[in-house]
Amino acid sequence: MYIASDANAVFAGKSFLIIDDFQGMRSMMREMLKVFSVKNIDTAANGNEALVFLEKNKYDVVLCDFNLGNGKNGQQILEEAKHRDLIGLSTAWIIVTAEKTADMVFGAAEYMPDDYILKPVNEATMRSRLEKVITKKSMFVDIEKAMRAKNHARVVSLCDAVMASNKTNATELQRIKTSTLLATGQYDQAKQVFEQILSIRDIPWAKAGLGKAAFYKKEMDRARQLFREVINQNPAYLEAHDWLAKCHEEAGELEEAQRVLVRSTELSPHSVLRQKNLGELAHKRGDMDIAEKAFRKTIKLGEFSVHKSPAAYLGLAKVCSNKNNPAEALQILKNIHKDFESPETALHAKVVEGMVYRDAGDHINAGKISKEVAELVRLEDNKGSASIMLEAAHLFLATGNKEAAESLAKTIVQNNHENTELLAQVNEMYSQAGFQDKGQELVNKSKQEVIELNNRGVVLAKEGKLDEAIRLLSDARTMLPNNKRIMINLINMSILSMRQNGRSDHLMQLSRECLERVAKFDRQEEWCAQILVALDAIPA
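Above: the chain's sequence. Below: its structure in token form.
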């Protein structure tokens, strides 16, 4: 029996989204898809319309122009769609564009569109490219489901299974597998896969992956060597530049880190995050000219980007203050509230405002703002980021509010008692204010208090008094909501209790809340992946 082939079978049941600012181009592509027997077609004229469609529907293919007039460009829509998890592995994203410049290609490639089609496009080219990408994407449907379910072990096993039966997309499957291993802290397993790949062929992404594994394992010399090798062989491999800069910064080699970032921003001048990172690093080094240029470019590029953040505006305000331009600094801080409305941003902006007045010699306004910050810190109830709280403590000391500074510094230490770098910064803050002995005493005493509190919980657990231990550390978590060690021990005790006494909705919720917060602080925490497996294994 013979079955006639259907030239359009690959398109059956597929849904498409066309994004183009020209009505004529949208109509042309829609008619072309209809020739392929595609029935489910939506069209959008700009980024905002496209994102509304992506929020409501799951598409098999997105055909997106790069230049879309005013507003988001095609790269920024793809960036936001991935950042907000609106599309997954099984959605094909194709940039359809007349752009051929290196800047555009470097910029968009970082967000990994599945293909580029240059305009003008004909029916034969469109059919050929779509058939290829749709066939490829069909292999990732189950893997995407496992990823959305956060079943990391299944993601890895599915990648192995698909590779065993079909070698066609082995490279992408290997990349998914190894990125999953790295994201869940399985560095040795990832290293083994990378080394197997490299034993066959010297592939840049695999060597860069091996460098990442070395970085996470704190093998900085090896990591630097690997990233340099990738860059020497492939100067335009932007990710290797970023990771080499991270290595230098981790080792305290800030000048070298900045040099690497400057080079990568020259290769890819339209990356919002890369420009922001350069600005922050240059400001940290005291290179105000580079910092100012990078922050201004970050703000300009980020206007329609999902990566638009208050950090660049706050950074520019600090730079303006450092360059004796308090008027512009205060104007930036005044305007920041129009675009960002979070309590954390409001607090941070107030802290910077206070320091601008202090640096300008306006002690009256600096003192006034310091009092306002003290009230905002109280309302934050220990939940603010350590870096912002440390800046607030600096402001308190600078304006003579020693009591508020000491209270906040104690909170910072007790929430981060295992973070040696942050503890050193607290010490340095007091040294700069002329109170070196006071700073060391405060750090040591505050650190010891939280160690003793945590240890009491551990002793109770070892004595079998799990309920008491959980209550003690739950209270400690309320007082110190950012202390990673307390949350880790609290989850471990909750799991042990549920294994002994059965599942508890309260303990499950408590554990998942703590797990989410620990992961927020350190997404490479290997313990997080292990605990997630342990929680999922508790019977309902």
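Residues 1-5 have pLDDT under 50 and may be disordered.
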